C-alpha cells in the first residue's frame, strides 16, 4: 500500500463481501418457483468461492440469510433451511480439500439444533485451512451486531471489568462477531439494487461499494475478475487528499 492509504496498481482486494441478491427475480423470469432461484444461487456461491480463491482473495463474506428474512413465507424459509443443510453436508468436504476455511456469523439461537451442529462441525473441520476464509452471515443483521456489542461492553462496564473511558473503536470492534477478520475492501451487491440492507454496517465504513446489474444466480467466477479490475481503478484515500499520497 502506498503512502496515504491508497492501494498500489495491480492489487487484489484482501476481503470481498457480497450481498447475494436476485434469486427470486431470476426464478420468476423463468416461470419457476422462488426455491429454484435459491438452488441456483447456491451454485453461484460455489463459483464465487472458487473464483475468489483462484484470484488470491483471502476473505469472502456472503449474506446468506438476514435477520429480516424470517418475515418471508414459511414455505420459503423451510426451503432455505433445507438448502443450508444440503450445502453444509455437501460442500464442507470440498471446501476442506481446497484449503478453504468456513465460518458463520450471526445469531444461531433461532436456527434448528441440527443446523447449529452442522455449522459447528464445518467450522471445526476447516479451522486450520488458510487459502481462503469463507464467512457466511446467517440470521445476521448489522444493527443487531452493533447493539449486541454495545450491550456486552455495557455489561462489562457495569461489572467494573472495563473503564468506559477506555472504550474506543478497537475495543468496540473486538466485540463484533468476527473481530479477527479485516474490514471488507469491497462490498458488492448483485441484481442492480443499491442498498446495504443492514449488512456489515460497522465493517464497511471505508469499503468500496460496487453494484452489479446481474441477478445472483447468474454470477460466475469471471465476475470476480471484473470486480478486481474495477477495484484496481479506485483510489482509496481513507479521508486523506490525493496530495498526501
UniProtKB/TrEMBL annotation:
Binding-site residues, Mg(2+): 21, 208
GO molecular function: ditrans,polycis-undecaprenyl-diphosphate synthase [(2E,6E)-farnesyl-diphosphate specific] activity; magnesium ion binding
Active site: 21, 69 (proton acceptor)
Keywords, in A-Z order: Magnesium, Metal-binding, Transferase
Example of a GO biological process term: polyprenol biosynthetic process
A single Gene Ontology CC term: cytosol
Pfam families: Prenyltransf (PF01255)
Enzyme class: transferase
UniProt cross-references to CDD domains, sorted A to Z: Cis_IPPS
Cofactor(s) listed in the protein's UniProt record: Mg(2+)
EC number(s) given by UniProt: 2.5.1.-
Details of cofactor binding: Binds 2 magnesium ions per subunit.
Binding, substrate: 22-26, 34, 38, 66-68, 70, 72, 189, 195-197
SUPFAM superfamilies membership: Undecaprenyl diphosphate synthase (SSF64005)
Function of the protein: Catalyzes the condensation of isopentenyl diphosphate (IPP) with allylic pyrophosphates generating different type of terpenoids.
Quaternary structure and partners: Homodimer.
HAMAP family xrefs: ISPT
Family classification: Belongs to the UPP synthase family.
Protein name, entry field: Isoprenyl transferase
Organism, scientific name: Limimonas halophila
Lineage: Bacteria, Pseudomonadati, Pseudomonadota, Alphaproteobacteria, Rhodospirillales
Amino acid at each position: 500500500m502506498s503512502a496515504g492509504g491508497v492501494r498500489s496498481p495491480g492489487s487484489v482486494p484482501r476481503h470481498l463481501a457480497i450481498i447475494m441478491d436476485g434469486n427470486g427475480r431470476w426464478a420468476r423470469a423463468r416461470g419457476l418457483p422462488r426455491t429454484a432461484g435459491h438452488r441456483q444461487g447456491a451454485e453461484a456461491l460455489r463459483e464465487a468461492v472458487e473464483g475468489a480463491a483462484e484470484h488470491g482473495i483471502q476473505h469472502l463474506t456472503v449474506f446468506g440469510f438476514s435477520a429480516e428474512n424470517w418475515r418471508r413465507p414459511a414455505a420459503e424459509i423451510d426451503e432455505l433451511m433445507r438448502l443450508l443443510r444440503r450445502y453444509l453436508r455437501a460442500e464442507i468436504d470440498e471446501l476442506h480439500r481446497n484449503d478453504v476455511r468456513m465460518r458463520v456469523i450471526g445469531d444461531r439461537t433461532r436456527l434448528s439444533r441440527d443446523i447449529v451442529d452442522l455449522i459447528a462441525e464445518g467450522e471445526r473441520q476447516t479451522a486450520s485451512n488458510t487459502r481462503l476464509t469463507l464467512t457466511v452471515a446467517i440470521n445476521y443483521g448489522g444493527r443487531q451486531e452493533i447493539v449486541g456489542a454495545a450491550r456486552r461492553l455495557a455489561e462489562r462496564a457495569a461489572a467494573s471489568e472495563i473503564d468506559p473511558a477506555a472504550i474506543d473503536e478497537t475495543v468496540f470492534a473486538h466485540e463484533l462477531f468476527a473481530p479477527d477478520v479485516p474490514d471488507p475492501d469491497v462490498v458488492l451487491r448483485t441484481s442492480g439494487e443499491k442498498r446495504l440492507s443492514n449488512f456489515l454496517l460497522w465493517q464497511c465504513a471505508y469499503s468500496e461499494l460496487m453494484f452489479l446489474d446481474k441477478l445472483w444466480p447468474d454470477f460466475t467466477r469471471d465476475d470476480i475478475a471484473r470486480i478486481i479490475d474495477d477495484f484496481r481503478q479506485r483510489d482509496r484515500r481513507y479521508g486523506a487528499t490525493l496530495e498526501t499520497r
